[in-house]
Design a protein that fits this description.
Mean pLDDT: 91
Distance between the termini: 22 Å
Number of strands: 2
Helix content: over 70%
Low-confidence stretches: none
Strand content: under 5%
Structural class: mainly alpha
Strand order of the largest sheet: 1-2
Radius of gyration: 18 Å
Largest sheet: 2 strands, antiparallel
Length: 134
């Protein structure tokens, strides 16, 4: 339904678009972080192979390229979301879900130590977004 030039979306559609933004952002963050850990210290690579060698090391990593692709998809999903969902909900909801998703993914895939304080912070942010969505 179109109301005054704005497409009215259902609650389900709203949250699908927000979750898509967050999921692709998390994938991008985790893939690029994982790639950079595999590549190693860019200063060391630059010292050995020059700036071109450092650039080559990064752009020849499939994991890095998939991370960049995920970030691009997240950006376009955000554009789509903002064209259909109020920014006062879309921005904090996607940011908080990304924050929570990054904590889970960092723990699961990157084997990072995510302490209790970070989990509590993520839950409080999500609770705040829940209150905004009502």
């Amino acid at each position: 339904m179109i109301v005054a030039g704005h497409i009215e979306t259902s609650v389900f559609e709203t949250w699908v678009t927000i979750v898509t933004v967050a999921a692709t952002a998390v994938a991008g963050d985790v893939l690029t972080a994982g790639a950079m850990r595999r590549i190693g210290d860019l200063d060391h690579i630059r010292a050995q192979s020059g700036v071109g060698g450092a650039i080559r090391a990064v752009v020849s990593s499939p994991m890095f390229l998939f991370g960049v692709l995920s970030m691009a998809l997240s950006f376009f999903a955000l554009l789509f979301t903002l064209s259909n969902v109020e920014v006062s909900l879309a921005a904090p909801a996607s940011a908080s879900l990304t924050f929570l998703g990054n904590a889970f993914a960092a723990k699961l895939f990157l084997k990072e130590n995510v302490d209790r304080r970070r989990w509590l912070a993520a839950l409080f942010v999500c609770a705040g977004v829940f209150l905004l969505s009502k």
